[in-house]
Design goal:
Pfam families: HTH_3 (PF01381). 66% of the residues lie in helices and 0% in strands. It has 133 residues and is mainly α.
Length: 133
């Protein structure tokens, strides 16, 4: 890549690479799993791509796009999980009460599901026994 190419905005570089490979935005969307709107927004420099987006775009376009993104430009892929212990304790208490009061119904539902999923095995076992095998 030339120095002027590296100085271009990421969206312009992505669009240039995509059009050079004759891939539409819709095709790129389908191949990467990113939404069409996300690709449009990245190419128009409306948003900065996440590291995940840079990775999947690079894989599909068969190019290393990481040098094209300054560390300050890319936003990290984040996953947040917040658990409230008091809510979890209440949930466990409610679950315990549910099992204590409705264990027969829960057992019956699990038994029916097991019978339905094992129907062909049970049927073949009965037929083998019936036929003396």
């Amino acid at each position: 890549m030339t120095q002027s190419y590296l100085q271009m905005e990421f969206g312009a570089r992505l669009k240039e690479l995509r059009t050079r490979l004759n891939i539409s935005q819709k095709e790129l969307s389908e191949q990467t799993g990113l939404t069409l709107r996300t690709i449009q927004r990245i190419e128009n420099n409306e948003v900065k791509p996440s590291l995940y987006s840079v990775k999947v775009l690079g894989e599909v376009l068969q190019a290393d796009l990481s040098p094209c993104v300054k560390p300050s430009e890319a936003k990290p892929y984040e996953f947040n999980l917040t658990l409230k212990i008091t809510d979890m304790n209440q949930f466990l208490h409610d679950l315990t009460v549910l099992f204590k009061t409705h264990w027969k119904t829960i057992f019956l539902i699990v038994l029916v599901i097991w019978l339905l999923t094992s129907y062909t095995d049970i049927k073949s076992g009965i037929m083998d026994g019936w036929n003396g095998k």
